[in-house]
Write the structure tokens for this entry.
Amino acid sequence: MAVKDRERLLHFYEDMLRIRFFEEQVRDVLYPQRLFRGSSHLAIGQEAVAVGAVHALQAEDYVISTHRGHGHAIAKGLDLQRMFAEIMGRRTGYDRGKGGSMHLADASLNFIGENPVVGSNTPMAAGLALAAKLEGNGRVAAAFLGEGALNTGAFHEAANLAALWSLPVLFLCENNLYAISVPLDKSSALQDLERRAEAYGIPGRRVNGMRVMEVYDAVSSAAEATRERSFPSFLVFDTYRFEGHHTSDKQTYRTQEEALEEFRQRDPIHILEFEMIDDHTVPIPTTIEYRDRIRAEVDAAFEAALAEPWPAPEDALTGVYAEGGE
Amino acid sequence: MAVKDRERLLHFYEDMLRIRFFEEQVRDVLYPQRLFRGSSHLAIGQEAVAVGAVHALQAEDYVISTHRGHGHAIAKGLDLQRMFAEIMGRRTGYDRGKGGSMHLADASLNFIGENPVVGSNTPMAAGLALAAKLEGNGRVAAAFLGEGALNTGAFHEAANLAALWSLPVLFLCENNLYAISVPLDKSSALQDLERRAEAYGIPGRRVNGMRVMEVYDAVSSAAEATRERSFPSFLVFDTYRFEGHHTSDKQTYRTQEEALEEFRQRDPIHILEFEMIDDHTVPIPTTIEYRDRIRAEVDAAFEAALAEPWPAPEDALTGVYAEGGE
Amino acid sequence: MAEGKLRNITYAQAIRTALREELKRDERVLLFGEDVGYYGGVYGATVGLQKEFGEDRVRDTPISEMAIAGVAVGAALAGYRPVAEIMYVDFLAHASDAIVNNAAKWRYMSGEQFRLPVVFRSPGGGGAGYAAQHSQSLEAWFAHIPGLKVAAPGLPRDARGLLKAAIRDDNPVVFLEHKAHYTFKGEVPVAEEVIPLGVAEVKRSGKDATVVSWSKTLTHALEAAETLAGEGIDVEVIDPRTLQPLDMATILASVGRTGRLIVAHEAVEFAGFGAEIVTQVVERGLDLLKRPPVRVAAPFVPIPYSEPMERFVIPQPTDIVAGVKRCLG
Amino acid sequence: MAEGKLRNITYAQAIRTALREELKRDERVLLFGEDVGYYGGVYGATVGLQKEFGEDRVRDTPISEMAIAGVAVGAALAGYRPVAEIMYVDFLAHASDAIVNNAAKWRYMSGEQFRLPVVFRSPGGGGAGYAAQHSQSLEAWFAHIPGLKVAAPGLPRDARGLLKAAIRDDNPVVFLEHKAHYTFKGEVPVAEEVIPLGVAEVKRSGKDATVVSWSKTLTHALEAAETLAGEGIDVEVIDPRTLQPLDMATILASVGRTGRLIVAHEAVEFAGFGAEIVTQVVERGLDLLKRPPVRVAAPFVPIPYSEPMERFVIPQPTDIVAGVKRCLG
Ligand SMILES: Cc1ncc(C[n+]2csc(CCOP(=O)(O)OP(=O)(O)O)c2C)c(N)n1
Ligand SMILES: Cc1ncc(C[n+]2csc(CCOP(=O)(O)OP(=O)(O)O)c2C)c(N)n1
Ligand SMILES: [Mg+2]
Ligand SMILES: [Mg+2]
């Protein structure tokens, strides 16, 4: 493997670990200790999609995410400490404590934010892409969406418009087989999800969402095509969420065995580790080093965030409107 | 031609004339004399779709229409006088003067009504079909929609749901090439409209909407399939509206020649007459007799409606809520 | 009403009881929405109903709010009595064409040819840290639409009794639940009880001031009343239970006695439903009130996520206590 | 402001003037919606703009209100200043997720990381025989949503000046036009005029009563004022012009002088925006008013089609005259 490829792979590996450990921290520490409120939707199991896809984009490209967006945020380079701070409602969080787990955003990194209203980010992505196209700045706008979001009117309208107007949008659909409790076969009439955008002249492609390099390659070429032709692409990643819909989901709709079996066979991090070890990209001790280092990084970010200040109650009253204009 | 077929054809011919003359009355008398308010959306040019489609259904089948629904209403058997009365705002109209041209309905004929909110009738059709399916009464629900309506989120959600739940719905799309001023190629990314429902596993079929028998045959077999399999069908009828979007449309978006040329070549009533004369179904004098008789029928309905009483102003205050319940 | 046996159950269980009773009573009652079937609803309000009544009558839907609401309207037109769930009040936005343009108007604009026996259930409100897009209180939107009825129960008993009435009603009812209130417990009769839409209830009698409140905030008002009682202030608490129809007679009678009006609700104060109640009172006569009316409601901001801010924004019992005192002057 | 040269133009022309001036001034201004491009809008408010500014900046869209509004939000987040048209206020229902859940809240819930310079133009109101689904007045919905601004101009001059301000504003503005008012004519300065959002205007001074009104009903109020003047009754007519921000100071100052408040609007009275104005006045002090306030607004029914009924339902100048007299006692 070329040095460059090896570095890239290790970089992906790091980011996947970052996401995994971040989410485990939420699950194992923040949740039981009630350090956050509302619900937090973990991306454990979907790290390869977030990392492979976001790293196939340029820093200037827009990313707009969903309720399940911690992974996308981390891959886009958001600061773990400020993410933890936001999730824990601190004044120093990304949103000054006003958004929480479902509204992480970093304008400076073109991470437009999570939009937990299912499907609602897709027309916004078309708008971001319209801006890029008019500006001629070569950016693309990538919208993540779950397979459940394919059934929203918003997605349909956005896809048609994006194709009609030839907008550089990437619709990145994470098929984790469930929308809360509703399995794919109870939500989509058609199971060949990659065909869900054909009605707009957008050819779809189905990708193994558990192999980060496959995701990266697919999104790289889709992004290139979308950028050059200024036309939308639609990719469906087969993945799985190993956790519940959110941290307090009792998961009565699937057996524990199903989740365990999926995990054993399809965990994207294990898959990547096995491959890297197998092809001598890294020796086993190195993976342990990586894990330890990233775990420590996540822990440190969390500890630092934990010490951060709370907003004052009255802070609620500011920031509704922007001052001025043109 | 078998006697039965001949009778059927003549019956279609009558209904097409009824629609044509009804609409001409609206255009040539009601409009210039300001006998109605708001806007009236004429179906001149689209008679073969209304007649061929509705006559392929059973009387018990539900029909839910659009802003351009006079033709569907007439084909479903609504009374011309009460239609005129409604359009002219009289107390004796179908809606007691509360609905007007865009809200004609006749519950007793299972003409659920026109819904001028574009696309909004399609989920309702799925609901009517759900009722029919649960009831097991063998009815189907037919929703007309324009090609412009294909781009609404409502249609997408309805089509997916109807396929997913195996509901007996017919989506009958009248492609008249324009949505107000917007031509098809500026509204739909894909021009093969019959493929717009494939994303839900609903195979589409494109039909010449200017030949009433082709429409009738296509809808007959689609309705049969939909009824038997309890699964949606999607048909696209190529047609054309010879008039403006509504009575006061200045039609700056197309040349007069275009409309005239289309009319000369594709008028569904001329086509039918030529064919009938050609294959000796009827001699020319008979067509003249038909025209005169139907024209007189329409005139009489109009004259009678004209004499009908106005609602009292205070009638506005009644009928918002139904009394009682279970 | 003679009080029979009571059970102490949660607001969610009360909703479930009503749904179950009505599904049993009438085959034409249907239930659908996201996750309401196998899962039993994200707040557990429909647990077990699919198992009991089958997949035909209790259905999971795709994430398609326009269709959920539109299908409900269509099924109602065909004589069924659908209860559609929209998972959050905020997503009534998606469903509002079907609710506001179709359900509310189909009867009127067809000259009374149709009945629309359909219920749109949806939980609103904040307090649980769900932030701006999952915490709105939008009762003012739907109460403003002729053709709709709007219920906003605060107590389990009312939730059960009003939901049964809503299902039996031949008109569309927007039935607003409160997501942070599903675990709230209260006494509910074991026997069948249908509480008519449009009848307010005096939840606590008092002579010094009239507090009108509904949904979860009603329970804050009752708590505030207890606190005030400890200070010798005796407030009457009225729950309109439905905002449309609105039982102004009960409110006016109370204000006639107390001469003071406080309206407390969780929705944003500006253009909130409280203004309608205040206005209807002062339209009847300025001398009905001894002191200016007081609204206790959310300030003009979206609901923030972090606890100190969210608590600050959402009216608490202490805010109602302060509001009453302000009104007493 | 020194009055320069004036032109007598229609409300539609005033809108068009504002759009044209702003498209010229700032390349980042975009215009899109159904039929706004080649056709120039179903009410002619955008005629010729596509020709002048090109298809990139002035676009026809498919019938996709969710996308129209959502694309506008996205483009605004990327620094453009889109003006999205929703053809009828009734279909703001379809667009309300993007407007209410996204545009209104994105800045707040991101801790002020973004600006949302987007305008949603839409014509509401009745009077033209379009019936229930094409005639609603829903200003109360949007005024209730923190994060939005809401304009409802009644005169061409204000329409032009406020629309320019709305386009320049860094916040989402719901700009409500009136479909039966596009041919209404009035004087508009030839020179550039930007009218700030949030500043009411006294359209007619008077001492006997304060009438607050906006949109088309404002012109009815002015007509009513003339009629009343003939009878020796001298009313002040105030146009808030924007409902959010709402310039209560101007209203309160007037009511302080006249002691009588009439609010006239076309929207349904129940839970309409009039209630907010009445409530804000009485909250300040019951003694501000000599007589109970009066609302002149639509009864609680959908808009009927037929003329006698529609006229009856929609407030007319005579209704305002009667309302003022009722208030004078
Ligand atoms: C419009 C809308 N409807 C309903 C919800 C409630 N909800 C939140 S997440 C979710 C499931 C989403 O499923 P999917 O798109 O597959 O994403 P996943 O959770 O699997 O990542 C639902 C129904 C919502 N947030 N927005
Ligand atoms: C949701 C919605 N958006 C916009 C409109 C305004 N409108 C009325 S008819 C129409 C065009 C419809 O085009 P199409 O579906 O092709 O039907 P056609 O008029 O050609 O019969 C539009 C945009 C509407 N009634 N409803
Ligand atoms: Mg999923
Ligand atoms: Mg068309």
In short: Residues 3-30 of chain A form the longest helix (28 residues). Residues B 67-68, 116-119, 146-149, 176, 178-180, 245; D 34, 63, 65, 87, 91, 94 surround thiamine diphosphate (ligand 2) (CB under 6 Å). Chain A touches chain D through 48 residues (CB under 8 Å).
